[in-house]
Amino acid sequence: xxxxxxxxxxxxxxxxxxxxxxxxxxxxxxxxxxxxxxxxxxxxxxxxxxxxxxxxxxxxxxxxxxxxxxxxxxxxxxxxxxxxxxxxxxxxxxxxxxxxxxxxxxxxxxxxxxxxxxxxxxxxxxxxxxxxxxxxxxxxxxxxxxxxxxxxxxxxxxxxxxxxxxxxxxxxxxxxxxxxxxxx
Length: 184
Hints:
Helix content: 55-70%
Structural class: mainly alpha
CATH superfamily of the largest domain: Winged helix-like DNA-binding domain superfamily/Winged helix DNA-binding domain
Radius of gyration: 21 Å
CATH topology of the largest domain: Arc Repressor Mutant, subunit A
Strand order of the largest sheet: 1-3-2
Oligomer: single chain
């Protein structure tokens, strides 16, 4: 795999990402380099994410008129103890800003999928709680979503690809966010 830039500091276009030039040196780091192959992997990761998430979003919206972000909130609440999470914990799980999540949860409350509960031990804290209607919505949408994950992502991976990706992505997550509870 050649990659874009063709070598040190730019050069001829190459790879499937088009005729972009880039300097593989990482600004602010002493001598650190990002190779052309590493840049290709990074760009493909971003492209795959955008394409697959776009397809999943479109399928959920078409079949259930359910935004993928809502599905993500419903899954997070379903998996949580008592089907409830503090808003700050939910924001971390679904990768939203707290203000963005507040607006999203407001709409989900209006739809009847989520309720808000005050946190007894912290008057400033609020829980988002999955309602029976939210659980029913999740059950109705999960087959569509899981089928989409299989069709748009998993079916393209061999077993050794799955193992390698799980290891690599897990290593990145642990390094950037800390290990998951129970991971050692």
